[in-house]
C-alpha cells in the first residue's frame, strides 16, 4: 500500500494513488496529490473539486467524463462545463484525475 505524507501524517492510498479513506481528504491533501501529478491548483480547479465532492455526496459515486461535464454545465454554466475546459484543467483525464484530487474513488467506468 502506498502512502502520502501530509503534515507528518501518513495518508493511505490504493495502488492507483486514490485515497483509501474518504475522510482523509482535506484541501492540504488535495494540494499534495496535485503536486505528485505536477499540477498547481488554482480557483478553477478548486471549483471543480468541490463540485465533484457535492456530486459524490448526492449520488454516492464518482462521475465518468460525460456525467461530470453535464453536471458542471448544469451547476457552473456551459463554459466551465465543457470537455475542453475540464481537459485543460486536468491534463486530458478530468474524471479520473479530478476524482483522485477530490479524494473520491476512481470512477468505475474509467480505465
UniProtKB/TrEMBL annotation:
Family, per entry: Belongs to the dsrC/tusE family.
Residues annotated as signal peptide: none
Source organism: Pseudomonas benzenivorans
UniProt keyword terms in alphabetical order: Cytoplasm, Transferase
Record keyword Cytoplasm present: yes
PANTHER family: SULFURTRANSFERASE TUSE (PTHR37010)
Record's function text: Part of a sulfur-relay system.
InterPro entries per record: DsrC-like_C, DsrC-like_dom_sf, DsrC-like_N, DsrC/TusE
Source organism, top-level taxon: Bacteria
Protein name as catalogued: Sulfurtransferase
Major site of localization recorded for this protein: cytoplasm
Protease listed as a keyword: no
UniProt-annotated location(s): Cytoplasm
Entry EC no(s): 2.8.1.-
Amino acid at each position: 500500500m502506498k502512502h502520502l505524507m501530509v503534515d507528518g501524517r501518513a495518508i493511505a492510498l490504493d495502488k492507483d494513488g486514490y485515497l483509501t479513506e474518504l475522510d482523509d481528504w482535506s484541501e492540504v491533501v488535495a494540494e499534495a496529490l496535485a503536486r505528485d501529478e505536477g499540477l498547481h491548483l488554482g480557483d478553477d480547479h478548486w471549483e471543480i473539486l468541490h463540485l465533484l465532492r457535492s456530486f459524490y455526496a448526492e449520488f454516492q459515486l464518482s462521475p465518468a467524463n460525460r456525467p461530470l461535464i453535464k453536471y458542471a454545465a448544469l451547476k457552473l454554466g456551459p463554459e466551465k462545463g465543457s470537455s475542453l475546459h475540464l481537459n485543460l484543467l486536468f491534463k486530458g483525464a478530468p474524471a479520473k484525475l479530478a476524482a483522485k484530487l477530490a479524494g473520491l474513488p476512481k470512477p468505475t467506468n474509467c480505465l
